[in-house]
């Protein structure tokens, strides 16, 4: 029939999924949040909390699909952090903040006491607070008063600079003490512990 036209197919559709800073990840034993994208020895991945991805080789899932493997983890000294290498090429970490169109800057900052900072995690979403201490409160972690909950571990902590519109990378959420104090591992300490770099 002249109304039927056959064309050569291009093969199966390849899915491409963005993994954004603050998105939910899961693994055997629980869930946590994506910190931000990094490279380690040229390998693309992202960082999260070390107490979440607590063993090398641990599989990391995103919406039920295994997308990454823990390649390095530390829960001592100045860092509670892990590097998760992307193992599924259909998934790509981005610098987009979860649930927004906002871009996280690759510039790292260590703000002083009183600075307003933000975090985006899978449990409590976007919250903000002020830095209490940027010194050696607990293993050189920084303390602040933003809201968080179970599952936010590993999520990105950043600061917003109104004059430039930049959202600077500060680190990853580590945990809480009592009802009002939260802690994050500084991005520079994450890089030092894991051999990672922002991009």
Q: How would you describe the overall organization of this protein?
A:
This protein has 199 residues and is mainly beta. The longest helix is centred in the C-terminal third of the chain and has 8 residues, at 187-194. The chain is 4% helix and 50% strand. The strands form 4 sheets. Strands 6-7-8-5-4-16 form a 6-stranded antiparallel beta sheet. A 6-stranded antiparallel beta barrel has the order 10-11-12-15-14-13. Strand 11 and strand 12 form a beta hairpin. The chain is built from 1 helix and 16 strands. The model has no long low-confidence stretch (mean pLDDT 91).
Quick recap of the structure?
With 199 residues, the chain is mainly beta. It has one helix spanning 187-194, and strands spanning 17-21, 24-27, 30-33, 37-40, 43-48, 59-62, 65-76, 79-86, 91-97, 116-121, 125-133, 142-144, 156-161, 166-177, 181-186, 196-198.
